[in-house]
């Protein structure tokens, strides 16, 4: 293994993460033959096959599982070395590696831009995931900070709430309930709902907000895309439970309205999460402090949704 290269390890790790040469090639901006060559060379250094193919799918071999575990440790050591060098430059420089759940991509790039304006030479890596992918990214140490609504209860994780995250019931302006006041839950549950898929962060937030009555929701459609859900609601196909931070544009132009439902908005929080034993680079610590001090006000400004007293 002494002649293996970091590039080979990074290529192998990407293929192992996706279990796909084509998706790895797309992420790495390489051709698929180039990716295959890097993995083949690493296998030659290891003296063992790292993948096996069964049908059309590839799987890690026992050697591949071990290589992935050690390879990620080596890659992380290089990242920490880069961060240590950035430390010598101060917080003005460095690489901020942050991941966010999909509901956050409606405002989070603007938060990053606001942070970046006040600091020189900060490079960014932003990834957007569903909750399951985000937890995996934290577990595998692929991100420094994770921005989410429902942080893991794992004692190995540090989580801090930095901004309120309201959820509301939305409908088309032409919906019969659009102008009603103080709508009861009994009346609401007679309507067809268009919802995020089960297991998603939004679905779990809905479960918490509705409690035992979640079983009475008339689910007309489950859709993985916020944009598709909004278009279906605008078209009058049903109502939906959504984060206000995903609907600011539609509210501004009048394509959606927030229904006046008893007990809503349902209030949750945005959290910044990182591993307890993670040695955060200075730029990540600075961004965490930025979220705690300015995050709530900036999100309210960007989404133009002000909570009523």
Could you give a quick summary of the protein structure above?
The protein is 43% helix and 22% strand.
Low-pLDDT runs of 5+ residues are: none
| Beta fraction | 15-25%
Biggest sheet features? 7 strands, mixed
Q: Work out the radius of gyration.
A: 23 Å
Order of helices and strands: HHHEEHEHEHEEHEHEHEHEEH
Which oligomeric state applies? single chain
Q: What do the pLDDT scores average to?
A: 88
Tell me the overall shape. Answer: globular
Number of helices: 11
Fraction of residues in H or I helices: 40-55%
Q: What structural category arises from helix and sheet content?
A: alpha/beta
Describe the protein's architecture and organization.
This protein is of the alpha/beta class and 309 residues long. 43% of the residues lie in helices and 22% in strands. It is built from 11 helices and 11 strands. Helix 1 packs across helix 2. The strands form 3 sheets. Strands 3, 4, 5, 6, 9, 10 and 11 form a 7-stranded mixed beta sheet that branches. A two-stranded antiparallel sheet has the order 1-2. The N and C termini lie far apart (63 Å). It is globular and about 70 Å long. The model has no long low-confidence stretch (mean pLDDT 88). A hairpin with a 2-residue loop joins strand 1 and strand 2.
């Amino acid at each position: 293994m002494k002649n293996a290269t970091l590039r080979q390890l990074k290529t192998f790790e990407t293929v192992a993460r996706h279990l796909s040469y084509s998706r790895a090639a797309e992420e790495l901006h390489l051709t698929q033959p180039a990716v295959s060559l890097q993995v083949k060379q690493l296998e030659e250094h290891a003296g063992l096959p790292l993948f096996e193919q069964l049908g059309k799918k590839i799987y890690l071999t026992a050697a591949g599982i071990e290589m992935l575990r050690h390879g990620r440790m080596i890659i992380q050591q290089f990242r920490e070395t880069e961060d240590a060098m950035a430390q010598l430059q101060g917080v003005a420089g460095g690489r901020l590696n942050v991941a966010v759940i999909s509901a956050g991509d409606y405002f989070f790039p603007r938060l990053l831009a606001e942070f970046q304006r006040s600091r020189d030479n900060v490079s960014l890596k932003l990834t957007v995931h569903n909750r399951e992918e985000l937890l995996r990214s934290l577990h595998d140490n692929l991100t420094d900070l994770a921005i989410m609504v429902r942080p893991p209860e794992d004692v190995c994780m540090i989580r801090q709430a930095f901004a309120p995250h309201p959820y509301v019931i939305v409908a088309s302006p032409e919906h019969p309930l659009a102008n009603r006041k103080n709508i009861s839950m009994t009346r609401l549950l007679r309507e067809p709902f268009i919802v995020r898929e089960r297991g998603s962060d939004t679905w779990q937030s809905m479960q918490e907000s509705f409690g035992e009555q979640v079983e009475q929701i008339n689910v007309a459609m489950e859709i993985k895309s916020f944009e598709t859900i909004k278009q279906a609601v605008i078209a009058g196909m049903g109502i939906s439970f959504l984060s206000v931070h995903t609907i600011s544009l539609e509210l501004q132009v009048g394509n959606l309205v927030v229904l006046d439902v008893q007990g809503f908005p349902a209030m949750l929080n945005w959290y910044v999460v990182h591993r307890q034993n993670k040695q955060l680079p200075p730029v990540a610590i600075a961004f965490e402090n930025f979220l705690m001090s300015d995050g709530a006000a900036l999100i309210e400004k960007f989404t133009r949704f002000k909570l009523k007293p």
